Amino acid sequence: MNQLLLPLLLMLVVAIPLVMGTRKQKKAAAAQQELLSSLAPGDRVMTTSGLYASVADASADTTIDLEIAPGVVTTWLRQAVREKVEPVVETDDETIDDEAVVEAPAIESKDDERVEEKSGAQIAPPLEHGKK
């Protein structure tokens, strides 16, 4: 009996991770198959190559038509669809001002009067700190 115990334990140590791994793969394959069968026109998807598109036609068994740009429809294998993604919602609430305000460096003069640069812009004299 003791002679069979060690080989049996070794087989269990090897067999349990293999069984668990195949169960995980089967669940992932079933979820992917459900995703592919549930695709409908208007769904936003991402392909395995990273392309975002909208489903235009999903009536064929092995292929699917994806609209990658307005008016541009391409045909793909269904297996090329990786996942559904949320549609992009653009909001105009927040506008970011990309133009940064650049101030010209102050040029000191002996007379503390306005000095004109070569471009014609006027620059105020530097502020005197500490004087009241």
Description:
- This protein is an alpha+beta fold and 132 residues long.
- Helix content is 27%, strand content 23%.
- Strands 4-3-2-1-5 form a five-stranded antiparallel beta sheet, covered by helices on one side.
Describe the structure in brief.
The chain has 132 residues and is α+β, with helices and mostly antiparallel strands. Helices cover 27% and strands 23% of the residues.
Low-confidence stretches: none
Put simply, the count of helices is 1
Q: In one word, what is the shape?
A: flat
Average per-residue pLDDT, rounded, comes to 80
Major sheet: arrangement of strands:
4-3-2-1-5
Give a count of the beta strands, DSSP E runs of length 2 or more. 7
Major sheet description: 5 strands, antiparallel
Topology pattern, helix = H, strand = E: HEEEEEEE
Helix content: 25-40%
What percentage of the residues does DSSP assign to strands (E)? 15-25%
Helix vs. strand class:
alpha+beta
Report the C-alpha radius of gyration, rounded: 34 Å
Distance between the termini: 102 Å
